[in-house]
Design brief:
51% of the residues lie in helices and 0% in strands. It is an all-alpha fold. The chain has 2 domains: 8-72, no CATH class; 90-135, no CATH class. The radius of gyration is 16 Å and the shape is globular. The two termini are 17 Å apart. Pfam families: NPHP3_N.
Length: 136
């Protein structure tokens, strides 16, 4: 759970300075709302070399989404990969961490997860695609 954007472990994660990277943050906002030039994009990749601020951008953006989600009652789930932390560098934790966050905000979803696990006790050792199809 330390990979979640509002986890204590991420309290000191880098963020964008005020009034910086506004164009990128606006593009991300449009993409998340399926508006503008991003309305048909299912996946958006934020490329760039190490140290150029991708994590700061996404941390700032996820915090904006989390604030907005409280008002709009929209579920936001995040996962930050981090190579230096083994639990956060393994893709196998991705789907379960996202599913957990959805269940936190949408309690009836928890019943779905319990049902899936009950029907297939080895769901957590299946492919990420299988987990995504069945848990999310």
């Amino acid at each position: 759970l330390s990979a979640v954007s509002n986890a204590e472990e991420r309290a000191y994660a880098p963020r964008c300075l005020h009034e910086t990277r506004t164009r990128v943050l606006e593009d991300l906002k449009e993409w998340s709302a399926t508006e503008g030039q991003w309305k048909d994009a299912k996946l958006l990749i934020l490329p760039g070399p190490a140290g150029h601020g991708k994590t700061a951008i996404m941390q700032s953006f996820s915090e904006v989404l989390l604030r907005q989600s409280r008002e709009a009652r929209v579920v936001v789930a995040t996962f930050f990969f981090k190579a230096a932390i083994p639990a956060q560098s393994q893709p196998m934790a991705l789907v379960t961490t996202l599913a957990y966050q959805v269940a936190e905000h949408w309690p009836s979803f928890w019943d779905n997860i319990v049902s899936v696990v009950h029907e297939n006790m080895r769901i957590f050792s299946t492919s990420l695609e299988h987990q995504m199809d069945h848990l999310l």
